Each structure stands twice: as C-alpha cells, then as structure tokens.
Amino acid sequence: MSIATAERALDVLADFPAIPAGWAYLDTAATAQKPRPVIDAIARAYDETYATVHRGVYQRSADMTLAYEAARRRVAQFIGGKPDECVFVRGATEGINLVAQCWAGTQLKAGDRILLSQLEHHSNIVPWQMVAERVGAAIDVIPLTADHCIDLDAMAAMLRPEHKLVALAHVSNVLGSVLDVRRAADLAHGVGAKLLVDGCQAVPRMAVDVSALGCDFYVFSGHKLYGPTGIGVLWARAELLDTMPPYQGGGSMIDRVTFARTTYAPPPTRFEAGTPHIVGVIGLHAAIDYAAGIGLDRIHAHETALVANARERLSTLNSVRLFGPDDSAGIVSFEVVGVHPHDVGTILDEAGVAIRAGHHCAQPLMDVLGVEATARASFGVYNNSADIDALVNGIERVTRIFG
User: Which residues are catalytic?
Assistant: First the structure.
C-alpha cells in the first residue's frame, strides 16, 4: 500500500487533542498520545461513576466492579486469552517482574538457564538477572541476524534441556524487528522451556492471539496502546498462574486471613493486591475499543507505509545510517554520522519534530550496533506524510549545521 493510499484509509489526527497543528509527534514507541474517547472515558469515570471495586455493597461500587471486570473480559478477547488468565499490573515491567519472582523464582534452580536476545529492553533483562543471581541460574543470549532480527536458527542451536525460560520481544522497541513468536514457542517447548513475550510494541499495531502464538506468558503496557499510564496486562496460561504464589500481600488478593495462616484468592485476583488502578482499567478498555474500532490490520498497513516512506527518504541522505530491517514495525532508528543523537533530537525539536534520542533502555543492543545511542522515529495512527517531510527537512538542517 502506498503512503497516500494508507493516509486516505486512516485519518484520525483530529481524535488527538494533545497534538497541535504543525507538531510532528514521532515518539509513540515511548508512549502514545491519547484519543478523545479514552480521555472522555477517564473523565467520566472520575466525574460520574467513580467508586471502589470488589468491596462495596452499594450500587455504584457494584456498577464499577462490573465495569472493571468487563474490561478484563475485553482485554482477554483482544489478545485471544481467557479473563481468568489476565492480570492487571502497572505495566509490562511489573508483569515481567511478577513472572520473574513468582514463577522463575520458584521454579528455577542452580544450573538452570534463561535465554534472552541481544535486542531486549532492560525490563526484559534485569529481572532475569536478579532471579538468576538468587537461584544460581545462568543467562544465555541469542545473537541477531544481519538485518537486526532475533536469529531463531541460532536460538535453535543454542537451546538445550537446561533452558527453562526464554524471554523475547515480539517487536523490538529500537529496531522494529518482528519476532516469529510461533516458531520461537515451538523451539522453546521442544526442550521443555516456557516462553515469555514482551508485547509492548506489538499490541498497538498488529493483531495478537496468544493462543495461536503458543507462548506461555505475554505482557504489554496500556500507555503504548493509546491508553493511560500505570496500567498493563500480564497474560499467562491458567495452569501456570495456578502454580504461582502471590506477588504482593494485602487487600483483595486474600481468601481468609488469621494470625495463624492466610489463604489466597485464585488467579488473577491473587496477583492484584490493594486497591487497583480502577480508572486506568476503564481507560484501557476504551483504548482497546478505539484501536479495534479502527482495525489492527489498518493500523499496521498505515504504519508500514509510513516506515517504508521514511526509510526510503532517509536512505537517500549520505550522512544517515539506518538500523533494523526494511519491514520494521512502526519504528525507524538511525544515526546522523558524526552527530550525537541528543543534538539531532534538539534541533528537530526546534523544528517541531519530537523523536527519541538515547539508548532506549537497550544498552546491550547499542553495544551490538556499535553506537552509544540512536535517534528513533516511531509512528502511530495519527502520523502522516507531512510528519515525514518535517523529519527529513529537520535532518537536512542537522547536516547543514554540523556539515
């Protein structure tokens, strides 16, 4: 699909009040702007229907509890899981830490191994290091292919029975490279390992069906899916959640408390201690409805066209080096040779273009790429060819200033 065709098919910029005319917001991989339906849903929840959930016997509390659990069912439907397999967490980082502490921390032992890849976000590295150090496990790292994808052939050669967990990104937050999750799951299961998938960059731009993917754990954050911050989802197979002890202790996650002994609620409530982010859950429901209303296939086609156009135009600039595969999903990372990405980002900001510059919480990947940092343009449903024009014009200005 050409970029002009994609834009005709998807023109929703007017839904996003925080994006003023003339501002090219190209930092969606960090956090997405919020559409009016999400903002309105959050405002209504605070203005008109707010109450606590799961505890009150009065009508408004009962109604909010119904809305809260309806959101859980909507999440499950959105990713192809079941409601009792979906745990509300603060974000993907907490979801990964929950699995690390409550599954890996209880199942792994000295001599076991964890398999990661070179392109993982720090949130999908550090929790596993903490667990490995505590239990005496070891970590292995899958290399990348020449076009910066996770090398699944190398993964197949590396796997052995000592591997108990594989944790990989569905879509790289730096490179936009897309993992063949089904193959990764089959490879992991071939040696008896479980597969956790970081879906933060996938769920906003492509249809996800955890049953079809075959993974064991899947995490994502609401704020990258046009929803509010502070809310995310851990999906896990029911039989795995059943084996996991609580993550935190407190209200809501209990069955019966005495000073002699406490028993715990079944999943997912077992992992949702305390008063939850009620309005965040309502906002997430609205965000899912918004994205699904547009259609994940349309969103993916729109962003694919934008990425192709951006990569083609940036590749004509002699001073620009591109990273990642040509078919990267919604993300274009690059460097302007001889110019620090922070300087690139500052000059672009002066021209009304917002990008991300830095190591993107992926310092091991920066080492692999041979750079300290990259500049990253990432796209959302609200972007169009004018944003790419502004990006390219801004980079041309960068090369003139530093030329």
Answer: 361
